Amino acid sequence: MKKLFIRIFDFFNTIESKIAFYPTLLAFSGFLVALLMIYLEQQGISRKIMDVFPLLMVEDGDTALTVLSACLGGLISLMVFSFSMVMLLLSQASNNYSPRLLPGLISDKRHQLILGIYLATILYNIFTLFSIEPSEDKYTLPGFSVLLGIAFTILCLVAFIYFIHNISQSIQINNILENIFHDAEKRLQKLIKSEENSNRNFPNTENWHEYKAGRSGYFQNISTKNILNICDEEKTKIYITVPKGFFVLKNGIFIKSEKKLDEKVVDAIISNISFARGELVQDNYLLAFKQITEIAVKAMSPGINDPGTAINAIDYLTELLALRMQKRDNGIIVHDEKALLKIAIVSFKEVVYNVMASLRTYCKHDPIMVEKLLWMLKYLERQPTAQENYHTVIKEEMETLLKQAKKAFDSNKDVVSIENIASD
C-alpha cells in the first residue's frame, strides 16, 4: 500500500509540472459544468429565475446564439494569443538566460490556471450552444446557462488582464532569480533541519555488496522512512552511491549494502526511489546553483554583455552559499539512534568549485566582476559553518581567483585594487 501511495505521489508530482496539466483538468471541469447545467435546465431552473429576476435572462433564442457565438470566437482568439505569449516567454528565457529555466517557468501554476479557465469557458459555451434552439420561447430557453456563459467570459477577460501583468513580471530577470533563490532556500533549510540528529559515523563502504539501479533517469525523490524500515528488517546498512538530482545509469552501481540482499529486497528499495527525465529546484537545490551560475555566465558572454545581471546573480549565489555552509557533507540518515542509510552528496568544496570555475572563466578579465567575486568570498569567509574545512575551501578559491585575475588584467591599478580587497 505504501509503495502504491509513493508511486501515485511521484506520478502526480511529475505531471503537475507539465504545462497541460491544470488546463486539461479545468477544461474537463468546464465540460462537467455544462452537463450539469443541461440537467438543471431540464428541471426548469431558468423558468424559476425568470419569474424572480426577468431582467437577467435572455428572452430570444437568436440573441442567445449570437451572444454565445461572439463570446466563443473572442475566447478562442484570446487563448491563442495567450499561448503565443507563453511560448515567447519560454523562447526569450532560453535564449537570454538559460535553457535550464524552462521547467520552472513551464510549471508556473498561474499561467496554467489562466489557460485552463479559457479552455473551461470555451467548452462550456460550446455545449451550451448545442442546447439552444432559435425557435424556443423565453420560458423554454436555457437563459440561466447563457447568463453563466457571459459571466465566465467576463471572468476570462479579467484573467487575461492578470495574465498580461504576470507574464510581464515573469520575464524580468530579478523575479526569475528571486524565484529560483526562494525554492532553493526552502529546500536547503529543510535539509539542514533534517540533519539535526544525523551527526554519526558511517562505516567504510568499499567492500560492500553492489547492486545496479536497473533503470536510468534523474534521481528525484526517495522515501527514506520505507528504506530505513527495510534496513531495520534486513539488519543491514545501505549506501546510495549517486547524489540526489544526478543522472543514474541503468548498469551503473547505485546501491551498496553491508549484507547481501535478495533480489526482491533490492527491488523493494528501488521501488521507493523515483526517477525522472527532468530536474526541478524544489527537488534538488544544486540545480539552483547551476541555473544562477549559467545566468551570470551568459550575461558576461560577448553576445549578451550584461554585467548588471551577472552582479545580481552573484548576490543570490552569495546568500545560497552562505546557507549551504550550514549544511554538513555527510548525507547520513539516522533511525532509532543508528546510522542505517547514507546518500552520496555533492560536497561544499565541489559546489563552490563548480560555481567559481565557470565564473572565473568568463569574469576574470573584468575588474568589477572580480571585485564582486572577492567580496562574495570575503563575506563567506566570515560566516558560521557546519564544518571547519569550509573556510579553507573559501580561501583556496580566493587565491585561485586572484592568481587568474592578475594574469588577465592589463592595468597594474586593477591588480592593486583587487589585492587590497583580498587583504582587508
TrEMBL record:
One Pfam family, short name: DUF2254
UniProt KW Magnesium keyword: no
Keywords: Membrane, Transmembrane, Transmembrane helix
Highest taxon of source: Bacteria
Regions crossing the membrane: 20-40, 64-90, 111-132, 144-164
The protein, known as: DUF2254 domain-containing protein
Organism encoding this protein: Aequorivita soesokkakensis
Native organism taxonomy: Bacteria, Pseudomonadati, Bacteroidota, Flavobacteriia, Flavobacteriales
